[in-house]
TrEMBL record:
<dbReference type="Pfam" id="PF02775">
    <property type="entry name" value="TPP_enzyme_C"/>
</dbReference>
<dbReference type="InterPro" id="IPR045025">
    <property type="entry name" value="HACL1-like"/>
</dbReference>
<feature type="domain" description="Thiamine pyrophosphate enzyme central">
    <location>
        <begin position="208"/>
        <end position="336"/>
    </location>
</feature>
<keyword id="KW-0276">Fatty acid metabolism</keyword>
<keyword id="KW-0479">Metal-binding</keyword>
<dbReference type="Pfam" id="PF00205">
    <property type="entry name" value="TPP_enzyme_M"/>
</dbReference>
<keyword id="KW-0576">Peroxisome</keyword>
<dbReference type="Pfam" id="PF02776">
    <property type="entry name" value="TPP_enzyme_N"/>
</dbReference>
<keyword id="KW-0460">Magnesium</keyword>
<comment type="similarity">
    <text>Belongs to the TPP enzyme family.</text>
</comment>
<keyword id="KW-0597">Phosphoprotein</keyword>
<protein>
    <recommendedName>
        <fullName>2-hydroxyacyl-CoA lyase 1</fullName>
        <ecNumber>4.1.2.63</ecNumber>
    </recommendedName>
</protein>
<dbReference type="InterPro" id="IPR012000">
    <property type="entry name" value="Thiamin_PyroP_enz_cen_dom"/>
</dbReference>
<keyword id="KW-0456">Lyase</keyword>
<feature type="domain" description="Thiamine pyrophosphate enzyme TPP-binding">
    <location>
        <begin position="405"/>
        <end position="561"/>
    </location>
</feature>
<dbReference type="GO" id="GO:0106359">
    <property type="term" value="F:2-hydroxyacyl-CoA lyase activity"/>
</dbReference>
<dbReference type="InterPro" id="IPR011766">
    <property type="entry name" value="TPP_enzyme_TPP-bd"/>
</dbReference>
Length: 582
């Protein structure tokens, strides 16, 4: 009796009381199932962060808005609902633009909430005044300021919905300083329900029939699995299609793990060869620079592409498809499956194409193994990744960025689960790693998965958001950062050669632009905040420090792995097209 009376009182109070703009924003985000907010507070949005916490949203204070926005977008990719990024006016918002652009390029949902100067000071040179709604247009799918407090819940709902529906991306909601603390009677604010997951669309049946005719006529078929398939959670039907039809598949960098990298049909180890397919079933991947635009010499000039994409505007980019299947990846794959099951069609296992692919894979892995099994100090990239790969748990989330570090790591570190690889992505952005790792660690902890987040960084890549190690220490996120340290961007100088530079003249005129300080102690950045830091020079040190880090669930670790600054990768087949300067 008493309990229900107490609840009744609370209920009356909540509908009668006045609410602030800050509360409305926070409650609207919560109502839209936004679980995480990353940001940096200041005037005018401190109250928004506090209201978010009061509404039950987890707030993570970051050290730069760029990293905050990277983190919020990674939550969007990992959970399917956007994370929120909260920023102050002017420079705070400008810092977040990098994260919005990256999210838009990757097609990941994220909602940015920006405070702005008071409306009655617009055009007067107000503190941090900037045309924020206009500025965000180029970096988002939707950018608006609610016209009144009453409109906040519906504008937030529209923003969240827009970030998820169609091709996902970044959205921006502006809130002026005066709106943050202004009040309105709650009874005047219309309640807006949580927007459901995007409705599922399916391909035209005629196009499905066309696609099947092309697939069945293929001599050298290949499935390419992109991160659109990962985002669309298409792993179940995709596995059935690959296994049921006996087709070889190649994942794009973040398509890795949709099907496990050690699946017998995965031909990633013969990538160049596989791209010579005569029929490509393109699933949630774009024919952009990562896939060499679908053009020769990397692709067969007569390749028939069956393009499966959620986004109509993507169809036909660079290559006109032989069949265009517009729709949700999982749903379209199910449509294809239904047809191939009817005819019991299967690509034979004893074709020339399969033997060619298998031969090439064996040769490539032999070459990689030889590099990995060298025992030299300083180590090379292959040695480092070989030992890391042996110790990483199968279910860990791998975050990776750098040039050589990311490229070589991508081939040597396997993913076994979908959405467990986060990297520089479509936009090739350096500096994303620590924000992504923080987001992934928060999500894993929130879902109680017991899964580890391992962040493998080039020394240059690490520097972009290095101060976020403090964030990891503050929230006790047990991320393991491995800095593969070659003293520079792509390559560097050893300490001795660097020493001679100073004798050659002013360092700003003689030091190679790729150089970074030799043997920099990135491990001490981590120990400065109470995390574990390790300086690693040998294979034994690498193994023991990684094992110790994996046992510690209380705090983050950083392994500063000093490698040969001139260590490079194996010869590529098309060196003039290998954009290692990604
Ligand atoms: C935001 C941004 N700035 C600059 C670049 C250019 N860039 C490409 S890779 C890279 C860093 C590569 O060095 P490192 O992370 O140390 O990896 P390594 O190749 O040395 O292993 C840079 C600066 C970029 N991709 N993104
Ligand atoms: C809000 O509006 C309701 C309904 O009109 C009214 O009963 C209540 O007193 C108002 N609350 C305040 C704080 O003005
Ligand atoms: Mg480097």
């Amino acid at each position: 009796m008493f309990t229900s009376f107490a609840l009744w009182t609370v209920f009356c109070k909540t509908i009668m009381e006045d609410v602030t703009g800050a509360q409305l924003i926070a409650e609207a985000l919560k109502a839209q199932d936004v679980e995480y907010m990353f940001g940096i507070v200041g005037v005018p949005i401190i109250e928004v962060a506090m209201a978010a916490q009061a509404s039950g949203i987890k707030y993570l204070g970051m050290r730069n808005e760029q990293a905050a926005c990277y983190a919020a977008s990674a939550v969007g990719y990992l959970t399917g609902r956007p994370g929120a990024c909260l920023v102050v006016s002017g420079p705070g918002l400008i810092h977040a633009l990098g994260g919005m652009a990256n999210a838009n390029m990757n097609c990941w949902p994220v909602i940015v909430i920006g405070g702005s100067s008071d409306q009655n000071q617009e055009t007067t040179g107000a503190f941090q005044e900037f045309p924020q709604v206009e500025a965000c247009r180029l970096y988002s799918k939707f950018s608006a300021r609610p016209s009144s407090l009453e409109m906040i819940p519906s504008v937030v709902e529209k923003a969240v919905r827009t970030s998820m529906y169609g091709r996902p991306g970044a959205v921006y909601v502006d809130i002026s300083g005066d709106m943050v603390n202004a009040k309105v009677n709650r009874s005047k604010v219309r309640e807006v329900l949580c927007c459901p997951h995007p409705p599922v669309s399916m391909a035209d049946n005629v196009a499905i029939t066309e696609a099947l005719t092309v697939i069945k006529g293929a001599k050298r078929p290949l499935l390419i699995i992109g991160k659109g398939a990962a985002h669309g959670r298409a792993e179940g039907p995709l596995r059935e299609l690959v296994e049921g039809c006996g087709l070889p598949f190649l994942p794009t960098p973040m398509g890795k793990g949709v099907l496990p990298d050690d699946h017998p049909n995965c031909v990633a180890a013969a990538r160049s060869r596989a791209l010579q397919a005569d029929v490509v079933l393109l699933l949630g991947a774009r024919l952009n620079w990562i896939l060499h635009f679908g053009l020769p010499p990397r692709f067969d000039p007569h390749v028939k592409v069956i393009q499966v994409d959620l986004c109509a505007e993507e169809i036909g980019n660079n290559v006109r498809p032989a069949a265009a299947l517009l729709g949700d990846i999982g749903a379209v794959v199910k449509q294809l499956l239904e047809q191939v099951r009817k005819d019991r069609w299967k690509y034979p296992a004893d074709t020339e194409w399969w033997s060619m692919l298998k031969e090439k894979m064996a040769a490539n892995s032999k070459m990689t193994k030889a590099l990995a099994l060298q025992v030299t100090t300083p180590m090379n990239y292959y040695q480092v990744f070989h030992h890391v790969a042996q110790l990483l748990p199968r279910d860990c989330v791998i975050v990776s960025e750098g040039a050589n570090t990311m490229d070589i790591g991508r081939t040597m570190l396997h993913n076994y689960l979908p959405r467990h690889r986060l990297d520089a992505g479509t936009f090739g952005t350096m500096g994303v790693g620590l924000g992504f790792a923080i987001a992934a660690a928060a999500v894993q902890r929130g879902q109680n998965t017991g899964r580890r987040v391992v962040c493998i960084e080039g020394d240059s890549a690490f520097g972009f958001s290095g101060m976020e190690v403090e964030t990891m220490c503050r929230y006790k996120l047990p991320v393991i950062i491995i800095v593969v340290n070659n003293n520079g961007i792509y390559s560097g100088l050893d300490a001795e050669t660097w020493g001679t530079m100073e004798e050659m003249g002013d360092l700003t005129t003689v030091a190679p632009p790729v150089s970074l300080l030799p043997d920099a102690r990135y491990d001490e950045v981590m120990t400065a905040f109470g995390g574990r830091g390790f300086l690693v020079r040998t294979e034994a040190e690498l193994q023991s420090s990684l094992q110790l880090s994996l046992q510690d669930w209380e705090r983050p670790s950083l392994l500063n792995v000093l490698i040969d600054p001139s260590s490079d990768r194996k010869q590529q087949e098309f060196p003039w097209l290998t954009r290692s300067n990604l």
